[in-house]
Amino acid sequence: MLDQHVNVLSLLQRVGEITGRKKFQKIVFISKKLGMPFHEKYDFHRYGPYSEELSLRLEELQQFGFISEIKEEKAGYYQYRYQVAANGEHFLKAKGNDHETFEHEKNVIQAMNACSSKFLELVSTILFLQPADKEEIIRKVHMVKKTQKYSEQDIDRAYAHIEGWRKAINKGS
Amino acid sequence: MSRGNTILKEEKVFKDPVHRYIHVRDRLIWDLIGTKEFQRLRRVRQLGTTFLTFHGAEHTRFNHSLGVYEIMRRMIDVFQGRPHWNEEDRLLCLVTALLHDIGHGPFSHSFEKVFDTDHESWTREIIMGETEVNAVLRRMGNEFPREVADVIEKTHPNKLVVSMISSQIDADRMDYLQRDAFYTGVSYGHFDMERILRVMRPLDDQVVIKSTGMHAVEDYIMSRYQMYWQVYFHPVTRSAEVILNKILRRAKYLYLNGYVFNQAPTHLTPFFEEDISIKDYLKLDEMIIFYYFQVWEEERDEILADLCSRFLHRRLFQYVEFNQHFIMNEWAGLQERFKAIGIDPDYYLDIDFSSDLPYDFYRPGEEEERMPIHLLMNDRRLRELSRASDVVEAISGKKRTDHKLYYPSDILHTPGQENEKREILEILSG
């Protein structure tokens, strides 16, 4: 019961803060693809994999007072900052999940959070297009993400990160 | 792109209660409709458990798919000869419209939740795998099935074609809103589709609406808004969905724990074991599911038998509104009290979140993850709908969350352990 809410909340607790809805979306998607227990359904949208379910889950968590969403005006657009609120900490403690869930995956989640959302968009697009072979995926990335102008180095770096994160999560699990 | 397709000597026509007639002139479309994978859609209802609330909601994915095809056909008629429209894409659009739901199974939503599958990946498998659908599509070339799958998956480079089948105002939504309104008998889902089709224009990689059609689009958005709250999120339908979900969970739990069913659930075994082939998937339809529910109603396992009986005979769970106070203060205690009176809360107590439902409000923004509806102004500039329309602006981004707690009210009102049951009812009534 409420397991999916707990997972999203715990992930946020692990990183302290996530800046940007897009980044939040991509971190959960990549985590799901790496085998972490997220079941939010994703579709391919304008900026890669996007989950309306996750978007609502965040809204629910906010409505319950478990997370705080701070809206900031940037040059010509709004940006959202997410943190676990005091009620959320209390809730996690009551569920016995305080600082336990995703202990093993902590470093990977933090590494994702340190990446730019544009890079995470590339990583998640690659993961969405798998299991096609690399050549086919690169061709498609260039087609569907034409405006982002990802370089070959970006793509290689994305593959390296996916492999590294997979290894880190599989090690010891 | 006409290779592998011929025009039928005589146009085929389906009588349809929503669009009056559905016209088929392409051999390719006619043959796809005749495949067994497409015919299976006659045995999958469009609205899952909604028939338990609105008894007319018996329409299927089959007639919805034909409806989407027909709307797409009319959109193409409007686009023909206009700039940005490539006539070569006609068959790709028609085929994707027809096949966009081919991967849906019985009660898709509950199935996907319990067995962690998703109909989109099955759509791809059916289009790309060894199926009659694939054989028909390959007449158009070996790459054609992949193109169709990519459009449905929204990863096709031709964004205009993608947006015709999946965007905020697309052939799929325009059919299901009208069709669901018609079959449920409600009056909210109606809008002037003829007018919308007349003002749609292809523009680069999206479909836009001439500004003169704004009011018709306002009506469409309002219909969508009302249908969601009045039909798709109806609490009784959700109650049925909760019970369906619990039945599948219980059956899976029993199977995985070595329970011997009176009648082996052969069709569901691959789902329990998470090893599903296309053949297994295609065998499943709502007739099979109802067959198992009828059989399970006689099972020795009391929980499974009771839940199946509830679903079959519409003895659904009651509900109360659920809020933060409940989660923080009452939830754990309520579960304990259920256990104390011998009711397993895992199967008889559930919170239904709006995030667990298919959700589809018009919402501009969201860092533009979802392409908004654009109006084409007289000076050729584009304007996002909610910035031009006060009506749409008023309902955009408003309350989207809704949480309910479901429980078996009938059990709590039966004789025995009255004091404990009264306490539970007091908690539930807040």
Automatic annotation (TrEMBL), chain A:
<protein>
    <submittedName>
        <fullName>YwgA family protein</fullName>
    </submittedName>
</protein>
Automatic annotation (TrEMBL), chain B:
<dbReference type="GO" id="GO:0006203">
    <property type="term" value="P:dGTP catabolic process"/>
</dbReference>
<dbReference type="InterPro" id="IPR045509">
    <property type="entry name" value="HD_assoc_2"/>
</dbReference>
<protein>
    <submittedName>
        <fullName>HD domain-containing protein</fullName>
    </submittedName>
</protein>
<dbReference type="InterPro" id="IPR006674">
    <property type="entry name" value="HD_domain"/>
</dbReference>
<dbReference type="InterPro" id="IPR050135">
    <property type="entry name" value="dGTPase-like"/>
</dbReference>
<dbReference type="GO" id="GO:0008832">
    <property type="term" value="F:dGTPase activity"/>
</dbReference>
<dbReference type="Pfam" id="PF19276">
    <property type="entry name" value="HD_assoc_2"/>
</dbReference>
<feature type="domain" description="HD">
    <location>
        <begin position="61"/>
        <end position="177"/>
    </location>
</feature>
<dbReference type="InterPro" id="IPR003607">
    <property type="entry name" value="HD/PDEase_dom"/>
</dbReference>
<dbReference type="Pfam" id="PF01966">
    <property type="entry name" value="HD"/>
</dbReference>
